[in-house]
């Protein structure tokens, strides 16, 4: 089993951004590597998989894993049905129907609507609440929330909804009603869905939209062409299209579904890691009589359509996403059919086909958390951090990534952080980053040189993008590609020459910079040779181009690190 969220130690710059955005206080561990570099690693047992660190990490030292690669390897070799999370409509705006058609034409043994499973999920909630078997329900269709409750509030597991998530409800329906006992692959916006799938066993593959987009780009599959053809109608297998369940991924989607079927239900909602987990802590501290009937909790601000597994386009805004969900809601309301008592007519069909017990979920009991260290136990830790007075211990500057100095001290006490990661401690010891021996340049010169390297790297990336565009028509425009790669090689030659000729650059950075640029020059020269010879296929050229892109990214990260280091140093 893979780690859900992983750390690239080489890229980690120890900036504490991951600590700052992570809602799980015990998930991050600051370590010193053998080379003396401080990096922030992950305690997988405490990580809730929310992906906030992946979204926030500017150094790209955090990423996630899913089952996309294994899924495509197995597709066609075994019977697999695909369930599309409703957030596919915001992940592939305007083209989601073409995406699902592609799966049906390329080996899937059925494509089903996760929104239909959300309708079943709503029905399950209504049944549980009306029967009195569930009171003070805490929603569980966000797996990061479930892991958080299991980890930090195990006594509150009793409030987690007994009804499976929409995706699992759909998988149960396919198995028990449609009678397709096949492997299930879910197309989702969230790597944390794997936590649920591992516990329930209803879904085998978690295929995130972001990885799916990367796969389609590698295979040069463009769904915009299908849109241009005009035929965008799509029917899910067995005519199982969801109705109001389609708005489940949006904030308040469950609350809305419940209130239109149970007008008197007290349902509240919260979304966004910065707010939600504090409110969950408050919820768990309240006595049961102060809990609402239903507390809907979504980890991602903006709902599931903003998960780290979506891979939103650069120009897609929250306004665009909200507009999509409004369109989904209008469409669902127009298709909704209501019974005499005001509930969804399809609920009657569920009554005849589904055994409510098949939708029920049990949760493994979480371990009791250790008591927080006392003031006496933390006193020597504060001393190590250079905080000798009560005032010092309550500054709460948050530079370490924690909200309070006490939380930082607790992390040091439990071995999850280091005293030197406190900015006050670092400054009292003479500065976190000592000046390197032999540094001869003043800050203005060094900054100017680093900024110039950033400019070269930016220009290089732009040229690479142009080459990628030309590769789509390589058979007709091979000569143009050769010319463009030559431009890139000339740029690299100038950069290498500039660095080799400039004797004022920091002696510690010069060999590394020249080496990196030399690797880039070699990679591009190889690419140019491949194109000029015209003896290799486009796949080989793309492979060489990827090598160039990876090395260029390495240069960009290094150059930006230099700028940051200069700013911190001077």
Provide a concise account of the structure shown.
With 570 residues, the protein is of the alpha/beta class. 49% of the residues lie in helices and 8% in strands. The strands form four sheets. The protein has a four-stranded parallel β-sheet with strand order 6-5-8-9, with helices on both faces. Strands 7-11-10 form a three-stranded parallel β-sheet, sandwiched between helices. A two-stranded antiparallel sheet has the order 1-4.
Number of continuous helical runs: 22
**Arithmetic mean pLDDT:** 84
> Any idea how many domains?
3
Largest sheet: 4 strands, parallel
E-strand count:
11
- By secondary-structure content and strand pairing, the structural class works out as alpha/beta
Q: Features of this protein?
A:
four-stranded parallel sheet, alpha/beta, single chain, 3 domains, Rossmann fold, Four Helix Bundle (Hemerythrin (Met), subunit A), flat
Layout: helices, strands, pairs:
Elements (H helix, E strand, L loop, with lengths): L4 E3 L9 H5 L6 E5 L5 E5 L9 H5 L5 E3 L3 H7 L5 E5 L3 H4 L4 H10 L5 E3 H18 L5 E2 L4 H10 L13 H11 L6 E6 L4 H8 L4 E4 H10 L5 H6 L23 H9 L5 E5 L1 H13 L8 E5 L19 H18 L10 H8 L21 H10 L20 H9 L9 H6 L14 H29 L2 H28 L8 H24 L4 H32 L1
Parallel strand pairs: 5-6, 5-8, 7-11, 8-9, 10-11
Antiparallel strand pairs: 1-4, 2-3
